[in-house]
Design brief:
By secondary structure, this protein is α/β, with parallel strands linked by helices. It folds into 2 domains: about 150 residues, TPP-binding domain (Rossmann fold, 3-Layer(aba) Sandwich), CATH 3.40.50.1220; about 80 residues, SIR2/SIRT2 'Small Domain'. Helix content is about 35%, strand content about 20%. The chain is built from 10 helices and 9 strands. β2, α6 and β3 form a beta-alpha-beta unit. α5 packs parallel to α10. The longest helix is centred in the N-terminal third of the chain and has 16 residues. Bound molecules: adenosine-5-diphosphoribose (APR). Adenosine-5-diphosphoribose (APR) binds next to loops.
């Protein structure tokens, strides 16, 4: 941990990259591993673009569960620690998560690679709505429809869809220009997010992983901090600011 504290002190530009493990201590289930969402739902049946086009109502049983879990979730202290890193050179938070907890905690420089559950989209006419305006009916299992009659969908990247290109370009630029990347709570099996740390390393950055277990990326990391995201981040900030 002391080496990571020193790396933060020396860093000109810091990027934090987060996955579902960052939100577990806020009560949001991860996708993989024990009790993971994909152990209960088949992502290709419930969260792919072909599944949504053929049976949007079925996909909404998963969307509703995710909205139910995320909408009322509160960011834990680890999120506040990420906000505090903005005083220490944090230039971007790149997240695979769609729960919006970084913004809820006060982070402003958030790049959501996989979109967000907080916005709804109509694939037919492009109409957009805020989930919060329809959350009561969604939680009553009503499927939100656009005025044009089409079933709306959360503005998340479904399997088989491209990632938002502008967000992706900004994420690559951030990692290519940072001097420290902290990769938190991701199983590092989904591209292109899994390549961010290695791209940062190739650009000369120190790369750190925070996870409760090792991942395929761990051998490439300069430092591995084993532990829960909230616990590790709070300790990091306490040492940094002591
Ligand atoms: N603190 C830190 N890490 C944790 C914690 C915790 N409290 N709890 C779990 N983890 C770790 C797990 O060990 C695992 O490595 O978080 C990771 C969660 O992995 P996934 O569930 O695969 O989540 P993620 O890596 O974000 O998935 C990437 O896959 O299905 C797609 O779009 C979905 O964005 C998601 C992407």
């Amino acid at each position: 941990m002391e080496k990571v504290v020193e790396a933060v002190r020396r860093a000109e530009s810091i990027v934090v990259s987060t996955g579902a493990g960052m939100s577990v201590e806020s009560g949001i289930a991860p996708f993989r591993g024990e009790n993971g969402l994909w152990s209960k739902f088949d992502p290709h049946e419930m969260a792919s673009v072909t599944a949504f086009r053929s049976d949007p109502e079925k996909c909404w049983t998963l969307f509703k569960l995710q909205i139910e879990e995320c909408f009322y979730a509160e960011p834990h202290q680890g999120y506040s620690a990420v906000v505090a890193l903005e005083e220490h050179g944090l230039d971007a938070v790149i997240t695979q998560n769609v729960d919006g907890l970084h913004q809820k905690a006060g982070s402003e420089k958030v790049l959501e690679l996989h979109g967000t559950l907080n916005d709804l989209l109509c694939d037919s006419c492009g109409n957009q709505k805020k989930t919060e305006d329809l959350v009561d009916e969604i939680l009553e299992k009503k499927i939100p429809r656009c005025e044009c009659g089409t079933v709306m969908r959360p503005d998340v990247v479904l399997f088989g869809e491209p990632l938002p290109q502008r967000t992706l370009r900004r994420a690559w630029s951030a990692v290519e220009n940072c001097s420290l990347l902290i990769n938190i709570g991701t199983s590092a099996v989904v591209q292109p997010a899994a390549s961010l740390p290695l791209t940062a390393k190739r650009s000369g950055a120190v790369i750190v992983e925070v996870n409760v277990e090792k991942t395929p990326l761990t051998p490439s990391m300069d430092h591995f901090l084993e532990g829960k995201a909230g616990d590790v981040l709070v300790e990091l900030l306490e040492r940094l600011e002591s």
